[in-house]
Amino acid sequence: MARNPERRAALLDAAIEVMADEGARGLTFRAVDARAGVPTGTSSNYFADRDRLLSEVAERIFVRLTPEPGSIDTAMAPEPSRELVVELMRWLVRRLSAQRSCYLGLFELRLEATRRPDLRARLTEVLRSDLDENIRLHLAAHMPGDADTVRLLYFALTGLLVDHLTVPGMHDERELDTLVETVVHRIVPES
């Protein structure tokens, strides 16, 4: 297997774009090579098989979706309150919207995981860990609500993002902000 980390990352980024545009079924080595602008056969030198490519795509998506160091601390600096949760959820929606291909790629991976037990196990582990970390941060910051509050926000905002990213124009940006505020006000208790 080839060992150039920059090229591997570029191939994975191309694979994410292929998944976002063509779905998991369109993810082939040839499609990745074409999207990355490299000679045919390049990606097969980096990934042993399609399962390995899918697994590494999942890892790359999570790397790209991880906030910059310190940004969470900065975002959570104000006094804990329901209004801070509104702002944090708006920040999250903006971040994920800016990484549209990654989030669409994650939707595709979720669907593909229903057919691939190894991918399902890895995706479950990573998503569960991410949710647990969000719960931990929420409770440690003494934000209003409990672990179930975070779970309900996760479910509601995941659904909102599915609509926002898959049916563009269903909600304009102003309406999206209002919906986020409504979701938070209905789920998060006043402090």
UniProtKB/TrEMBL annotation:
Domain HTH tetR-type: 5-65
Keyword Hydrolase: no
Keyword DNA-binding: yes
Name recorded for this polypeptide: TetR family transcriptional regulator
DNA-binding region(s) in UniProt: 28-47
Keywords: DNA-binding
